[in-house]
């Protein structure tokens, strides 16, 4: 009689729509999850390089990461011409796996995850830079925040900033005034941001000088303002570009600022904001602090110097956020 064999039942794979991701992953939840992961020993320096490949009219981007419980891959497309067509620049999916069996356990809409993850990482950095402000330069709940960019990330960074700065006032600068006006109208129509003060300043240089916090979410390949104008104790966060040939801030700002990066390895490979101020010798002898250093308090801000955080997006951040989404549904 032939031997009887059985095939193990396939594990079900749960799907999370964009609406479900947003419902389960508030900015506060994401920021707290990132902080916990970094405090518990997750090192940004253990993150592997992102994988890029050509795609029609853009690029494919794969971002694998692993942890003891979950592992995952974010599979995205980047279409630089899409915003001009009224479409999303970044689209894709997140695939979550059990680290124990490497069985897939969830698929999540990736654009929404990115839209929450990126500002959550930025505001994690801003939160801790604000807490480490020099004596006499502390921020209240109502700082003046200047945002460069008028796309999805600009909107989401404003929403994320309200977690720690609920009474902040916002100014928005973009290349196209009509897009800035549309963004301000959209924020005013959203329940979460209705009543928040958001305006487009007439004097751009004056807005830079007066801002307590400056957030850059552009796709610029060259600096968007004069770094010498930034206030002595202001916080600047640049997160809109990746690649050594793209940058949002100039050397004048980098040289006069206390600098923090997401991860030293990723910044050295991909961050154009630092490419002309940090050569190989500087990376080896005096590298900047990373996000884990900042969250653990292993960073000192200098009086009368701006603080500058810059990131390009890292795979571990998506895994932390995707894990939080999955856990929120399966272990509420």
UniProtKB/TrEMBL annotation:
Gene3D superfamilies: NAD(P)-binding Rossmann-like Domain, ornithine cyclodeaminase, domain 1. GO terms for cellular component: cytoplasm. InterPro entries: NAD(P)-bd_dom_sf, ODC_Mu_crystall, ODC_N. This is Crystallin.
